[in-house]
Specification:
Blueprint (H helix, E strand, L loop, with lengths): L1 E4 L25 H17 L1 E3 L7 E4 L22 E6 L2 E6 L9 E3 L8 E2 L2 E3 L2 E3 L4 E3 L6 E6 L2 E6 L1 E3 L7 E2 L9 E3 L2 E2 L2 E2 L5 E5 L2 E9 L2 E6 L26 E3 L6 E4 L2 E4 L3 E5 L2 E6 L2 E5 L13 E4 L2 E4 L7 E4 L2 E4 L3 E3 L4 E6 L2 E7 L10 E4 L8 E4 L2 E6 L3 E3 L5 E3 L5 E7 L5 E8 L8 E9 L2 E5 L5 E3 L2 E2 L4 E5 L2 E7 L6 E5 L4 E4 L5 E5 L7 E2 L26 H6 L2 E2 L20 H8 L5 H4 L9 H10 L9 H14 L7 H5 L25 H32 L19 H12 L19
Parallel strand pairs: 6-21, 12-26
Antiparallel strand pairs: 1-3, 2-21, 4-5, 6-7, 8-9, 10-11, 11-12, 13-20, 14-15, 15-20, 16-17, 18-19, 18-33, 19-20, 22-23, 24-25, 25-26, 27-28, 29-30, 31-32, 32-33, 34-35, 36-37, 36-49, 37-38, 39-40, 39-50, 39-51, 40-41, 41-42, 42-43, 43-44, 45-46, 46-47, 47-48, 48-49
InterPro entries: Kielin_Chordin-BMP_Reg, VWF/SSPO/ZAN-like_Cys-rich_dom, VWF_dom, VWF_type-D
GO biological process, one term: imaginal disc-derived wing vein specification
Subcellular location: Secreted
């Protein structure tokens, strides 16, 4: 992989020098000391580098192809920067993701950490180093907590809160400040292990957490931030503000950088009227009080110095919401994420917190029914068959196999719940074949998907839509909305999509992992062993024929050819395949998907299919397979079928003229060569017919008196020497080497 850093750095503009008398920039210091501090600050600003949020180092270059789908790709002999990235093969490309910790809300970056990752500058406190974001408690007073955020340590006293009855209240655990409630429930709603809950949507800083089936609730003050107040942002559903911009400065030993100021060692300062800070060993150590937990709603609160307080309000014994009256201490759910309680006439609601989730390559983010937070679930396995059959297994392995018999495509080899058989047809060709029918056996149900989307259930042809119960599970068969395919869905999660002309896609849920066998592989997450035969032996890339034939089912009558020829890479005219397969490289047609799905396997399949194509439009199968996979990945493509003249459905009468002249296809010059060859072939047939007629006339002449020993002056059998030479060439030289002779021309005079 060839990549380079494309980060852009911005330097602060220099201020014009003023002619007025110098003013004291740092009160309390002598002019010489002030000058020294000013020089240090200017050096830090000029040599430091400021990076806007989101404009950090990035990678650019040419993406590499890969074949071992889903596996990690080791980047050997690469620059040190790649130690901060993890790469794996996904959709035919080497995809790399950043493994560095996030620095989106870090105001001061540490560029001297010696690694390729950008890190937020940490803190030094009482002889210990702490990373930014770290939280810890005082060993002697667990209620006194500290938090480090980009060279600033905030010290506070946390407040405890409890909603459970006294008989459920447990004393604080060793080393902890607040008591716990037995059982992880808040307002009657269960809290999952490790999950955090905002105990009140009116006070997002009051947080409860479930650990060991015990619920602990407490409130902490927001940490002091090093960025100016004007640069801070606060989201409505969060407790504390953030610093959205990243800045990187050279370290100033013994000094504290806070907001836009530099403070010497042991200097005290107040960022606001409620916070006191001291510069200690390059870290700003700040004390800030935690505001008390209020039982009144926000509309009944009023300012009182640094913290609000509850104003005098009427205490009632019931609450009303949307016309429903709730008694005091009564709880109710407002959905899977929110629950409420009536507290002295005030409605107090708790909100579940959903953690940030990053799914792996074989997972997708989904919202389970009845749950509050989305979670990563394994994606269904998908096996695709298309063209002169090309296979993409459940684990992403590509291979081609042109057998003309019946084969086991996929089967639940452990549970024996289903098996799918594929019947190929040679279509009168010597080596090519296409999928003809698909048969699904699901318990006591047998479904046959045939040509032109004909469907049989237990041997009887049915009309669509159709539904049936098999082994206690519902099975539905219907045509898709666009009419281009038949979709079979089973209650167990198995689906089959068949277009009636050779394209098939089988999907199985993740519960079938490591349970399958057949041409579609074992669905174990690795493509390296997808060519495992029925005998358990893993075949190599050059043994696809032996692997596929090990899954052959049925007798000799199931084959459309009496004799199979070992498939080899076709050696047809390269210009012909370039012409037909060029649309896959056109950005206007498939370019939106090229970054998500590598088209090289589909191009190779297209080049193979056009070599021996009885229908004239075999290249369209590769287009359709690529477009289908792009759609499954969520990529919307333009109307490529109309643009390439590849309509959906069955078509056997396509000719070169159907695509010649289309702007999206390649160079059609190969067709002129083909025309010359056809003309030579016709000339050869014409001369052969003339030769046969003269031979018959010569046989008649032998029976005339004095005719059998007479040779005319032209030569043998009435042919002159030029005709004999032409006849010899036509008989012994392949027609591919014959071209029409250019007319004789007089060469131009030499000057």
């Amino acid at each position: 992989m060839c990549c380079q850093s494309s980060g852009q750095w911005k330097f602060p503009a220099q201020q014009p020098r003023k002619s007025s008398a110098p003013r004291r920039r740092f009160p309390g210091f002598r002019p010489r000391t002030q000058l020294l501090i000013l020089i240090v600050v200017l050096m830090a600003l000029l040599q430091g580098r400021t990076v806007d949020a989101g404009a950090g180092d990035s990678l650019s270059g040419v993406r590499q192809s890969c074949s071992n789908e889903g596996e990690e790709v080791q980047l050997k002999n690469q620059p040190q920067i790649f130690t901060c990235f993890k790469c794996e093969c996904q959709n035919g490309f080497v995809n790399c993701r950043d493994t560095c910790p996030p620095v989106n809300d870090c105001y001061i970056l540490d560029k001297s950490n010696g690694t390729c990752c950008r890190r937020c500058k940490g803190c030094s406190f009482r002889g210990m180093s702490y990373e930014s974001g770290s939280e810890w408690s005082d060993p002697e007073d667990p209620c006194k907590t500290y938090k480090c955020v980009a060279t600033v340590v905030t010290e506070t006293i946390q407040k405890c809160y409890s909603q459970c009855d006294n008989n459920q209240l447990q004393p604080p655990r060793p080393g902890e400040c607040c008591p716990t409630c037995q059982g992880c429930k808040i307002n009657g709603q269960t809290v999952a292990e490790g999950q955090e809950v905002d105990a009140s949507i009116d006070d997002r800083c009051l947080v409860c957490q479930c650990r060991g089936n015990q619920l602990t609730c407490s409130k902490k003050t927001c940490p002091v931030l090093p960025c100016p107040m004007s640069k801070q942002i606060k989201r409505p559903d969060e407790c504390c503000p953030r610093c959205p911009q990243n800045h990187s400065f050279l370290p100033v030993p013994g000094k504290c950088l806070f907001n836009k100021s530099v403070y010497p060692e042991k200097t005290q300062f107040m960022p606001d009227r409620c916070t006191n800070c001291t510069c200690l060993n390059g870290t700003s150590v700040c004390q800030r009080p935690t505001c008390p937990i209020l039982e009144c709603a926000a509309e009944f609160q009023e300012p009182d110095g640094c913290c609000p307080r509850c104003a005098v309000a009427e205490v009632r014994s019931e609450c009303s919401l949307d016309g429903v009256v709730y008694q005091n201490n009564e709880t109710w759910d407002m959905g899977p994420c929110r629950s409420c309680r009536c507290n002295g006439g005030t409605i107090r609601c708790a909100q579940m917190r959903c953690p940030a989730v990053k799914c792996r390559a074989n997972e997708e983010l989904k919202q389970p029914p009845g749950e509050c937070c989305k979670r990563c679930v394994e994606t269904a396995g998908t096996c695709t068959v298309f063209g002169d059959p090309h296979f993409r297994t459940f684990d992403g392995k590509f291979f081609s196999f042109q057998g003309s018999c019946k084969y086991l495509l996929a089967s639940d080899c452990l549970g024996k719940t289903f098996h799918i058989r594929l019947t190929n047809e040679g279509r009168g060709t010597r080596r090519a074949s296409w999928a003809k029918t698909v048969t699904l056996n699901l318990r006591n149900l047998k479904v046959n998907l045939g040509q032109r989307m004909r469907v049989k259930v237990n041997g009887t042809r049915v009309t669509l839509p159709y539904s049936v119960v098999a082994g206690g599970q519902n099975v539905t068969i219907e045509r898709l909305a666009d009419g281009g395919a038949v979709m079979l869905r089973s209650e167990m999660g198995l689906t089959l999509e068949w277009n009636g002309a050779g394209f098939l896609q089988v999907s199985v849920p993740a519960k079938f992992k490591k349970r399958l066998c057949g041409l579609c592989g074992n669905f174990n997450g690795s493509s390296r062993d997808d060519l495992t035969g029925k005998d358990g032996r893993n075949h190599g890339e050059d043994e696809v024929w032996h692997f596929a034939n090990s899954w052959k089912v049925g007798g000799p009558k199931s084959c459309s050819r009496k004799r199979e020829f070992l498939a080899a890479t076709p050696t047809c005219d390269k210009r012909k395949s370039n012409f037909y397969c060029h649309p896959l490289s056109v950005p206007a047609l498939f370019g939106d998907c090229h970054e998500r799905l590598n088209p090289e396997n589909y191009k190779a399949a297209c080049r193979m299919d056009v070599c021996e194509c009885p229908s004239g439009d075999c290249h369209c199968d590769s287009f359709a397979a690529y477009a289908h996979e792009c759609r499954r990945l969520g990529v919307q493509l333009p109307d490529w079928r109309s643009a390439t003249n590849c309509p959906a459905g069955w078509r056997r009468n396509a000719t070169l003229s159907s695509f010649k002249g289309n702007q999206f296809y390649g160079d059609p010059s190969f067709s002129r060569l083909k025309g010359r060859r056809q003309k030579n072939h016709q000339l050869r047939l014409q001369l052969q017919q003339e030769q046969q007629q003269r031979s018959k006339q010569g046989q008649k002449g032998r029976h005339k008196p004095g005719g059998h020993n007479q040779l005319d002056r032209q030569g043998h059998n009435g042919l002159d020497k030029d005709q004999l030479q032409k006849e010899f060439i036509l008989k012994h030289v392949p027609s591919s080497f014959l071209y029409p002779r250019a007319p004789d021309r007089t060469p131009p005079p030499l000057h």
